[in-house]
Structure formats: structure tokens, C-alpha cells
Backbone:
């Protein structure tokens, strides 16, 4: 009977959690997807790249909002149980408040490990896939970005200026400047047009001059026609993987074996160097240790069962419990940012959740004995 009662409680929390997670996640994803539209309007990528990149950022959103949504789920379900007098079912079946807390804490460990898995594997994997997709994509909307009287520099090392274009998309008074590793090339053409064949885009230029600058050497050429391959251009979008996008195994390997393996090709591929060790340390702390706060927020959410709804100050105590858990969540987010500054911050960060949990559990135990 006891197992059935807890199963029903955990099922309600899980269903509410899953529904809320999807709804909140979609709202946040929609807001972020609007910001990602710069890939089309400014960087020249196609809509396929935009949607694929946006979708692959959904696991990151889920990872960020999971602790808050889980807290809301536990808090809401327990509060509704208390207000509907459904908590009596636990007490009349021989389940005391300490046993209730212990069972729901064990239940919370599943979500803690889920958060660790999301942060350590699924979220960075999805972000890295989105980065690779962006890296290997072409700029389908590059042609549409070319405007009259406007400098276009969405591609790396290239600036294009078009004085005017007609209704047939023929371009007039075209200026291009290309810079690459100390070399500079400037092209002026009286007219031109873009020829598209499947995924290949060629800018055909007519009647102009080419100025080739290589260090102190300058060469000037006149041409009747010259072709400029736009399909080989690289976007200005940052394509190097960030620390947040790397698998946890790679970060652990880099952090603990840097002195022995800093010449390893595998590590060098991901830019493992001494300058990012502190950033890696903070990222590993976020992924592996910060989820320990999930059982803590469950612990303080269960303080609700210590209060009687028949007392006048019941709602005020509920509000205090809610604000207390919100404060703990805010503290967990803020403190992790300073963990790499000094050994004192590290000690404070790693001891804080342990101390909070011990004191929180101790006071719950004392209060539960007196209720």
C-alpha cells in the first residue's frame, strides 16, 4: 500500500514536470529562435541551417531550466496534496513525515542524475552538432544580402559594395576587397551579375581592374571578364567549438592530463591549452557538481508538510518556503561563476550545498518530531 501511495505521488510529479518542461522549454526556445534569425539576415545562411541550428539548441534549454521546473513541480504537487487533505493518506498508512521526506529525496536523485547526463553528454553533443552543421553549410541567402549602396562583409576577409542593380539583378559599379594573411586584393568592375547553378554561385565581373597587394609589391591588372567563386566563401559566424560544446570526457582528459598530453593531436584539435584550464574547471563543476542542489530544493519544498493549512500564517509560511528555494537556486547559479577565482571560493562553493543540506535536514527532523 505504501509503495502504491508513493508511486501515485511520483507519477503526478513526473507528469506535471514533463508537461511543464516541454511548455517552458518551447517558450524559451521560441524566444531564442528569433535571435538566431541573424544567421539568415546578417550571416547569409539558409533557412534549413537556421531551423536545424535552433532545434539542436533545445537540449541546452532543457538542461538550464530543469532544476527550476522540477522545483515548481514538487512544490505545486505537495501544496495541492496539503490543500486537498490528501496528505492524510500517508499519515494513516503509517508513513511519518521523515519517511515521506526520505522517499522523495531518493526520488529526486533520478532527476539529479538526469541533469548530470544532460549537462555532460546530450547538451554538449547537440551544441557541437549544431556547430559542425553551421561549419559545413553554405550561405544560401548570400545573394539576397547584396543591397545597393551598402557595404556587405558577412564573409570572412571579404567586403563587397554595389552602387546599383537593375530589375534583372545586373550589378553596376562593383567593388570587392579581399584580405587573407597579409595579402590584399581589390577588384573594381563596371558591371556584373551572379550566376547560380545548383549550389555553385559565381560572381561574373566585366570591364574592370584588379589590384593585387602582396606586402610591398603592388600589381594592377585590367580585365574584360573575371569570375569570382562565392561558393567557397566562409561565414563570419564563429565555427571553433567552445568549451561548453565539448564532451565531458574530452574536458576531463584535457584538465587532468594536460601536462602529459598537451602535445596529443586529439587534444590539440580541440584547442586544449593552459589558458582555458580554468574555464574547463568551471564547466565541469557546472555539469557534475551543481546538480547536487536538486535534492536540496526538494528538501526545502517538503517543509510544506510541516505546516497546517488551518493556521492563519499557513500561506505566509508557504511563500517563505518558496522564496527560500528560489534563493537557493539563484545562489547555485551565481556561486558557480566565481568557483575558479580562488581556493576560498572553491571551498565555499563545494561546502555550501553540503552544509545547507545538513542543516536543512536537521531542522526538518527536529520540527517533524515536534509536530
Residues:
Amino acid at each position: 500500500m505504501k509503495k502504491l501511495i508513493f508511486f501515485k505521488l511520483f507519477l503526478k510529479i513526473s507528469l506535471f514536470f514533463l508537461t511543464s518542461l516541454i511548455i517552458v522549454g518551447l517558450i524559451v526556445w521560441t524566444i531564442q529562435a528569433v535571435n538566431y534569425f541573424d544567421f539568415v539576415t546578417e550571416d547569409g545562411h539558409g533557412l534549413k541551417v537556421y531551423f536545424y541550428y535552433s532545434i539542436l539548441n533545445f537540449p541546452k534549454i532543457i538542461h538550464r531550466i530543469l532544476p527550476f521546473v522540477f522545483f515548481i513541480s514538487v512544490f505545486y504537487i505537495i501544496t495541492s496534496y496539503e490543500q486537498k487533505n490528501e496528505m492524510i493518506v500517508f499519515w494513516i498508512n503509517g508513513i511519518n513525515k521523515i519517511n515521506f521526506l526520505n522517499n522523495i529525496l531518493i526520488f529526486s536523485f533520478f532527476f539529479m542524475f538526469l541533469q548530470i547526463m544532460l549537462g555532460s553528454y546530450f547538451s554538449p553533443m547537440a551544441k557541437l552538432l549544431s556547430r559542425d552543421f553551421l561549419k559545413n553549410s553554405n550561405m544560401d541567402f548570400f545573394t539576397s544580402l547584396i543591397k545597393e549602396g551598402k557595404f556587405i562583409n558577412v564573409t570572412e576577409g571579404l567586403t563587397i559594395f554595389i552602387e546599383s542593380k537593375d530589375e534583372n539583378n545586373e550589378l553596376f559599379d562593383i567593388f570587392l576587397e579581399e584580405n587573407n594573411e597579409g595579402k590584399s586584393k581589390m577588384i573594381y568592375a563596371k558591371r556584373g551579375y551572379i550566376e547560380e547553378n545548383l549550389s555553385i554561385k559565381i560572381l561574373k565581373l566585366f570591364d574592370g581592374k584588379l589590384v593585387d597587394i602582396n606586402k610591398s609589391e603592388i600589381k594592377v591588372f585590367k580585365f574584360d571578364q573575371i569570375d569570382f567563386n562565392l561558393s567557397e566563401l566562409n561565414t563570419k559566424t564563429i565555427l571553433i567549438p567552445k568549451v561548453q560544446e565539448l564532451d565531458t570526457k574530452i574536458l576531463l582528459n584535457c584538465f587532468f592530463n594536460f601536462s602529459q598530453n598537451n602535445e596529443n593531436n586529439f587534444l590539440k584539435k580541440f584547442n586544449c591549452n593552459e589558458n582555458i584550464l580554468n574555464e574547463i574547471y568551471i564547466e565541469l563543476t557546472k555539469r557534475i557538481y551543481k546538480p547536487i542542489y536538486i535534492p536540496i530544493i526538494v528538501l526545502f519544498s517538503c517543509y510544506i508538510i510541516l505546516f497546517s493549512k488551518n493556521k492563519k500564517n499557513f500561506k505566509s509560511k508557504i511563500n517563505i518556503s518558496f522564496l527560500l528555494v528560489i534563493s537557493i537556486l539563484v545562489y547555485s547559479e551565481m556561486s558557480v561563476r566565481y568557483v575558479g577565482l580562488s581556493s576560498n571560493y572553491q571551498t565555499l562553493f563545494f561546502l555550501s550545498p553540503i552544509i545547507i543540506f545538513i542543516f536543512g535536514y536537521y531542522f526538518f527532523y527536529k520540527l517533524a518530531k515536534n509536530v
Residues 40-44, 261-268 have pLDDT under 50 and may be disordered. The radius of gyration is 29 Å. The first helix runs from residue 2 to 35.
